[in-house]
Specification:
288 residues; alpha/beta; 6-stranded parallel beta sheet; 9 helices; 12 strands; globular
């Protein structure tokens, strides 16, 4: 009997590469990893042909337009990749009876809450990236695909470009740096999220809907940077600054903590504490 196929789109991103790292641990599946070069999601005809050839039973969509500030100038491209292409992928999954697992973001919220966001809380993105990701969620649900949407936040990994790697580089290059202290959330180690996704698929239990996943804890970007400094033994001085002192093209939510009760109670997935996961990632980077 042939093993069920899991198609992973956007496989060269942080999450895609972490899924590739652990795929061998889930030998009951065959994996097809498709990078942006292999499969441009906004070329709709190609996507259908790819599905016909690969015959996936599951599709994990890690592909996204993630340049938050650049999206303000490239709104059409962000909406196409994060919005319309997701709706189309959901429709293809439905047509070929594949279960769809899509990754979304804390940026669908306005950041004005004082308690961790639950899945059913009102959305209200304050930048183009958030609006494009929300459009993707809405189009996915409109297609009535058999879909799980996982919203996550502050993703980092030993792969790709992210806050942890940037901080480690800057702490090597500079004696002092400024980091925003009035944006609150929780980081997500992409390796933890990758494991949670494959554990959900392996569980044999598929309950479509929206879920939240990030590591446990509540910190600011400044506290995140301080922890990176401490774990790497850097001598650089990190100064806390306000968002107003560091203007960017795209506004950021002030508060983006996610409530993980639903994913924990439904799937009993592991949600490690943020600092424990940060330590693992830094250890990999230092020994690379």
């Amino acid at each position: 009997m042939e093993k069920p196929v899991i198609l992973v789109t956007g496989s060269n991103g942080q999450l895609g590469k972490e899924l590739k790292q652990i795929a061998d641990n889930y030998s009951q599946f065959n994996f097809v990893f498709a990078s942006r070069e292999d499969l441009k999601l906004h070329h709709f005809g190609l996507v259908e042909n790819f599905f016909i050839a690969a015959k996936p039973l599951y599709c994990i969509n890690c592909a996204a337009y993630t340049a938050v500030d650049k999206a303000e100038a490239e709104q059409d491209m962000a909406m196409l990749v994060n919005g319309e292409a997701v709706g189309h992928l959901a429709a293809i999954c439905k047509k070929y009876h594949a279960k769809f697992l899509h990754i979304s973001t804390d940026y669908v919220f306005d950041g004005e809450s004082e308690t961790p966001y639950k899945e059913e809380d009102a959305t209200g993105p304050i930048n183009t990236y958030g609006k494009s990701k929300l459009l993707g969620e809405q189009l996915c649900m409109k297609e009535d695909a058999d879909a799980i949407i996982i919203r996550t936040s502050w993703v980092y990994s030993s792969f790709g470009h992210n806050f942890v790697k940037t901080m480690m580089r800057l702490m090597n290059e500079r004696n002092e740096l400024n980091v925003v202290s009035d944006q609150i959330g929780s980081p997500t180690y992409a390796a933890d999220l990758a494991k949670a996704i494959l554990d959900i698929i392996s569980s044999g239990k598929w309950e479509s809907g929206i879920y939240h996943y990030s590591n446990e804890g509540k910190i600011s970007w400044f506290e995140f940077a301080q922890a990176i400094k401490e774990l790497t033994g850097s001598k650089a001085i990190v100064h806390p600054i306000l968002t107003a002192e560091y203007p960017t093209p795209a506004r950021r939510p002030k508060f983006s903590l996610l409530n993980k009760d639903k994913i924990k109670s439904t799937y009993a997935v592991a949600v490690p504490e943020w600092k424990e996961s940060l330590q693992k990632c830094i250890s990999i980077l230092q020994n690379a």
